[in-house]
Specification:
One of its GO terms (molecular function) is monooxygenase activity. By secondary structure, the protein is of the alpha+beta class. The protein has a single domain, classed as Alpha-Beta Plaits (2-Layer Sandwich). It has 3 helices and 4 strands; from the N terminus they run βαββααβ. The chain has helices spanning 19-31, 60-70, 79-83; strands at 3-10, 36-43, 50-57, 87-92. Strand 2 (36-43) and strand 3 (50-57) form a beta hairpin. 12% of the residues are buried.
Length: 97
């Protein structure tokens, strides 16, 4: 069953000028992973440094494998550094409500 993962990111006020290019590079790697259906970014209208990455995964297992890869030296990204540690992940499953 497909799941949706929301990655809530508050970029540091002192993040480098090329922060958007860096986030784009991180997302390119995400979009290349097995099991990803889509990954989009939405920006807070009142706070342009507040981003939410909306990821749709084929399964929890695919998302878990991706998160495990991101925890390795090969998969590590600089999102945590750009956000000053202000990153939160919440995962959702479809419901018939």
């Amino acid at each position: 069953m497909a799941i949706t993962s929301l990655l809530d990111i508050h970029l540091r006020p002192d993040a480098p000028e090329d922060v958007e290019a860096r986030v784009t590079a991180v997302l390119a790697a995400t979009r290349a992973r097995p099991g990803i259906i889509s990954a989009e970014v939405v920006r807070d209208l009142e706070d342009p440094r507040h981003l939410v990455v909306v990821e749709l995964w084929e399964s929890v297992e695919a998302d878990d494998a991706y998160r495990a890869w991101r925890a390795t030296p090969e998969g590590a990204s600089e999102l945590g550094e750009l956000a000053g540690g202000r990153v939160a992940l919440v995962r959702y499953e479809p419901t018939s409500i």
